[in-house]
Amino acid sequence: MITVEELTKRYGANVSVDHVSFRAQPGTVTGFLGPNGAGKSTTMRMMTGLTPPSAGHSTILGVPYAELPNPGRHVGVLLDASAQHSGRTGREILRLGATVMGLSRRRVDEMLEIVGLSGDEGNRRVGNYSLGMRQRLGIAHALLGDPQVLILDEPANGLDPAGIHWMRGLLKSFADRGGTVLLSSHLLHEIEVIADHLVVIGRGVIVADGSKAELLNAAGTLVRGLDPDALERCLNLAGYVYQLEPDGAYVVDATREQIATATARHGVVVTELRGADGSGLEDMFLQLTANDAREQVTA
Ligand SMILES: Nc1ncnc2c1ncn2[C@@H]1O[C@H](COP(=O)(O)OP(=O)(O)OP(=O)(O)O)[C@@H](O)[C@H]1O
Fold first, then answer.
1. Is residue 164 part of a domain?
2. I want to staple 219 with a disulfide (CB 3.0 to 4.6 A). Which of 47, 186, 280, 284 is the partner?
3. Is the dihedral of CA 230, 236, 237, 238 positive or negative?
4. ABC transporter domain: from which residue to which, for each copy (predicted)?
């Protein structure tokens, strides 16, 4: 479990992170989503003791990160895959980590294999690694101490589609075994696929926090009927608020189960029934991005 309470970071007159609070639960992948410069990395750096907060605090497994004994055995952290010493080989970096954490050397070979780095690649200097290989090495380092919690900043950066697919499977199974995963991204779709819970940050402030189902359902349900008039009568009888789209579909403020029950009761034939594309979340996210000064300059 990760708990973040009112974390705040000021740099001079600028507030980069403003009273941020959220939780990441065990058995769950929590996506920390926000456009560039929103405050994701700063929040994660404060959580892992690398940046002192101006106010607020956070705990991991019930204690502040700095108070965890042998932290790598409890929390795997990947904040900047390019921050590794470029003159060392991947294997040397993992061996150092294993020594610090009191682990056997066998664990290093296991980790190289798990993250898909060959023996030959493990013996190459990190300065010659691609960004994707550095991410794999960073994930190996984070998993080395068999932690219960993972904190990963943009771990998909630089991975190819097969690498992203592999990483999703890895993180899902980590959470399925009871682990807590917090991962950040600036891409909604990337995080939507893997996260169970979403925390959205914009300009240092949390703007949404809920289960993926809740946040995506907030966009409503799209339903289309063989006989649109009959469908509309049915929605009116059920008392649901809806909006008629230009293409004849109805976006209804109700769940799929509620609409299916109502249409079945009134004998209305439905030809399409699905979540309305999560457009509420996407709109909110685009608005956050568009309001950013960077976008206005290029607009
Ligand atoms: N050391 C620092 N000194 C001054 N300002 C900083 C410092 N570190 C971060 N900031 C500012 O804090 C804000 C948040 O930055 P942060 O790196 O946390 O965003 P982010 O959400 O991780 O963005 P990205 O997706 O681009 O990595 C930015 O405006 C950034 O310029």
1. yes
2. 280
3. positive
4. 2-228
The arithmetic mean of pLDDT across residues 63-87, rounded, is 90
pLDDT band at 298 (very low <50, low <70, confident <90, very high): very low
Are residues 110 and 245 located together in one domain of the fold?
no
Tokens, residue 186: 């600036």
Q: Which domain holds residue 177?
A: 2-210
Ligand 1 pocket, residue 39 CB under 6 Å: yes
Q: Which has more pLDDT, 292 or 234?
A: 234
206 shares its domain with 230: no
Work out which ligand 1 atom sits closest to the CA atom of 51: 1
Residues 140 and 232 in one domain: no
186 in any annotated domain: yes
pLDDT at position 293, please? Answer: 42
Whether 186 is in the pocket of ligand 1, judged by its Cβ within 6 Å, is yes
The amino acid present at 298, given as its one-letter code, is: T
What is the ipTM for the molecules in this complex?
0.96
Do residues 102 and 238 share a domain? Answer: no
Closest ligand 1 atom to residue 186 Cα is 25
**Nearest-CA residue for atom 8 of ligand 1:** 42
pTM listed for this prediction? 0.83
Q: What is the CATH number of the domain that holds 28?
A: 3.40.50.300
Residues 180 and 266 in one domain: no
| 106: exposed, middle or buried (Cβ count in 10 Å: 0-12, 13-18, 19+) | exposed
One domain, residues 27 and 135: yes
Pair (243, 270) in one structural domain: yes
- Domain total in the chain: 2
Based on the fold, state whether residues 262 and 136 are members of the same structural domain. no
